[in-house]
Fold:
Amino acid sequence: MRFAQICLRQFAVISLSVVFGTALLFWQASNNLSHGEGTASAADSLKAWDKIATVLENPRCLNCHQVNSPLQGDERRLHVPLVVRGEDNLGVPGMRCTTCHSQTGNNPTSSVPGAPHWSLAPLEMNWQGLSPGDICRQLRDPKKNGNRNAEKLVTHFAEDELVGWGWTPGKGRMPVAMPRAELTEHVKTWLAGGSECPK
Amino acid sequence: MITLNINGQNHDLDVEPEMPLLWVLRDRLNMTGTKFGCGVAQCGACTVHVDGESRRSCSTMVGDVVGSEITTIEGLDGKVAKAVQTAWQKLDVVQCGYCQSGQIMSAIALLSMIEKPTDADIDAGMEGNICRCGTYQRIRAAIHEAAKSLA
Amino acid sequence: MLKMRQADMPTSRRAFLKGAAVASATFVLGTFVPFGRFALAEGDAAAPKPVIDPNFFLRIDSDDTVTVLLKHLEMGQGVSTGLSTLVAEELDADWSKMRFDHGPNNPKVFNNLFFGSYIGTGGSTSMANSWTQMRQVGAAARAMFVAAAAKQWNVPAAEITVENSVLKHPSGKSARLGELVEAAMKEPVPQEIKLKEPKDWKYIGQKLPRLDTPGKTTGKAIFALDFRRPNMLVAMVARPPRFGGTAGKVDDAAARKIAGVVDVVQIPSGVAVLAKDTWAAMRGREALTIDWQLDKSEGRSSDEMLAEYRDLAGKPGLKADRRGDAAAALGNASDVHEAEFVFPFLAHAPMEPMNCVIELTKDGAEIWGGSQFQSIDDYAVSQVLGTTPDKIKIHTLLSGGSFGRRANAFADWAVEAAHIAKAIGGKAPVQLVWTREDDIKGGLYRPMVLHKLKAGLKDGRITGWQHAIVAKSILVGTPFEGMMVKDGVDATTVEGVAETPYQIENFAVDVHNAKTEVPVLWWRSVGHSHTAHVMETTMDELAGKAGQDPLAFRLSYLKEGAREAGVLKLAAEKAGWGKEMPAGTGQGIAMHHSFGSYVGMVAEVAAQEGGFKVSRIVAAVDVGIAINPDVIAAQVEGAIGFAMSAILRNRITFKDGVVEQGNFDDYEPTRMKEMPVVEVHLVTSAEPPSGIGEPGLPPLAPAIGNAIFAATGKRFRSLPFQGPISA
Structure:
């Protein structure tokens, strides 16, 4: 039943996001971010995005860029126990992220993961059901990326501690395969080439 | 040496910062009201309050709660706590009782943030506390009862 | 495997589970004084020493506190309140002065009257076997206090009344129980005891507050895992990844380097790490490198075991029940209904994992733990230590649930602790702690079970019924074998199908005892946890095929006035059976008799995105005299909350012999949002009380399954109910 629930939920999310995604495609088509440092062509930018996308689809990233409840584990099951977003993306009274997750790091005894500002990504940063192109357009849109310009985006990928957790997720969780420095380079290239997004 | 403030009292402890709060409470301080149920933050039997919010002590490294106010079932005080414990007693919620310290701690945290929780608030806020005896119906009723008595 | 003291066990299963008549016969009041006196507060030099060995049911203190020593384990079922109610009723004690403690493992006093000379809690027998005995204890004590007062006041005993722990005489004289303790103890124990008439009951039948509630809502209650001894070491055991495996070469160098780790010892069940605290023991165990010997272990996956079960089901089995000629009757049927039901292995997963504290003494040991079958635990430990059970002192402590896990024919946790204590030469008290993973992966599961059946219908009536059950026997190879296994048929495998109360003329039940190293055990309601579901689902399906109302169809197969019919009708009435239900919702009905009690249920479910939601359960319960209606209601509510997990999702599965689940995330019990609204209605009855710890569970799954069918047309047979809901 749980599996069926997840499938249905995901189906609902996908159908919704197809609609939104299509709409976004039109009005955000020219919404590219200011170029960051360095030089790169639009083609380089697109190529870099493809590399970035492989990382974003990792459960370490995707599991918390969800609509209402995070997913859990490499198998991306619905979080057990079920937690919900709440008003501040940090859960609801009685079941806050911090009820279980430490702000300093993974728990070596219980294996419950932790990192600074552990939370669900804000709703406008949801990726569930979005195509790589949709995620790309979302990421370059300051209204949907936490008001980040190119420089701040690079910092986010290169230095943010919660993002960094993806490389040190603790026992039983697959870390992000691509080294962080390499990812950061791809982000820089993507931005320098005009933050191009696939259709 | 790590200093923890538990139930209003400072304890100097010679423990590693990674040691789970649960085992510091149970094995070092002999405060056994906080229970071990799963060890992985799935069941809520080990719930305590850290600065007023619920926290699973099995997954809390003591190094993280230095300087915080930790409250366990033994140190409950205040009108919300009293209302919850009274409601639990009035409705005879408990069966084996092993999970109930954690249930009570979570219920207090919930009622401290929502004065009059709905059934949906209770479903969401108490989701992390397992009762294998299945006393959920009475837990729900006792939370409503406590809210009523506090109104 | 224990082969022990079988001669002591009652030979008939009926006597074991249902022998109410045994109760009064075995109660020999003259052999002990039924109450003594506590020492007052410790350190009070003036406090009198306990004057008698506390091998008795009752202690009364000078401050009027009445302490009932329980012969049954309080594991949540409310037995501390129930037994104390019986004593308080006849003693006319003030309920607010009642307290309880667990009795010692003296089988001469604390035996379960349905278990012969064994102390044990199980089979929902606690209140039933104690019903007369505990009232006699209270009544005898009351008579002794009255006699003492009569002497002091120089008045006829018959003129003295007792109310709320106060004795009174019409002349105005009065005294509290506590004031008369010393005098009362000098009185002879009465040889004839008259119990109250039901009309005079003050407590029996009332909702009295539970005696264990205060401690359990303040964190003060001491469970087994909370018990501490000076210099105690905590032990954790690394066990083989497959059942039937053993430890070979052990490299413990890394484990011994962990701060707090004191010792590593090899024992039959694995390798134990002893440490100064639980956390150190945990980390020490993780650091072990063990070469496991798995040649003789169970290496199959669940689907391979199931394939073997299916193969067995097609062959003739052991005969568990025969009425008429089922095969011939099936031949005469116009429609033959065939069905298969699969039930997975299930872990009990009580909230408090297995544990105990053991300390070796000069000729035996003391154990502090949630002991449920003390007479098996003390014997098993005595075998490990090379002594006799009387040298093993068990201090029974509150336990955080059991559901059968602690009533253990192998005494696995106590035996393991004894081996560890022996291996370290008794140099320190040892607290054995199982983690949740140890519990989920550690076996003693409700067996995996396969049912296959054929039922013939003609003209709307059942012509015949052929039924095969395949499971590993719970009892073969245990001390209970002689009592409850006949000609290879384990009563706990077939109960609920064999001897069905439905009057079906041609009925045949075969059983096959499957073999596996996976250890199995009774799980709340034992065989009824699967048989009720098969019977009540099938009766529903047959009613459908016969075009009849499921309630009317069932009633037509029950004897006039049967208690089964009573609970069916009451549940139907209270639930509004047959009322119009909104689209996508439905009602389902089921009934089952187990452990002497009868429970009918109507479930209401709603189909919802990806599954179903159980919104309401109306239960009708016949337990005879209801000693405490609120505790009974709580047990039914709890059985429903417990069973929901097995209906929704729980299963223990094997991949190449390794258990695939490990903790509450992948063996997830029912949570708050899944709990239906439960209403419990009691049948008024003057029959002697029967148990309610288990009987609330069996009818739930079929009631829900039948309701899902009514709501959606989708028929779930196997448990858990998983898969798409649209038919």
